[in-house]
Specification:
Length: about 100
């Protein structure tokens, strides 16, 4: 069976400035057989992409939301915990405030 699905964002924590690049990667702790991955966003019924990576070259405000990946080996299906992607821009100043 497939288990221990994890999702990692680059930049870490899923906080990305508008116009920057976002890369999400999915991995499993355990799983035998050929693994396949799909990417999902809350509110969308159709997978965003297939494969262990999901890349957005130029992030826009509408890309913010909750993402997760699903791993399957054809028999078992397992989801990663959700990751909130936050797009920072002029409308959303960083919580740290001015420098």
């Amino acid at each position: 069976p497939v288990s221990g699905v994890s999702l990692v964002a680059q930049p870490p924590g899923g906080q990305v400035a508008e116009g920057d690049r976002l890369v999400l990667s999915c991995s499993v702790a355990e799983g035998t057989g050929p693994l396949s991955f799909s990417w999902h966003r809350q509110g969308s019924a159709v997978p965003l992409a297939m494969g262990p990576y999901y890349k957005i070259r130029t992030v826009r405000h509408q890309d913010s939301g909750r993402y997760h990946c699903t791993a399957t080996n054809g028999g078992t299906v397992a989801d990663s915990p959700p990751l909130w992607v936050t797009v920072l821009g002029e409308q959303d100043p960083p919580a740290s405030g001015p420098p």
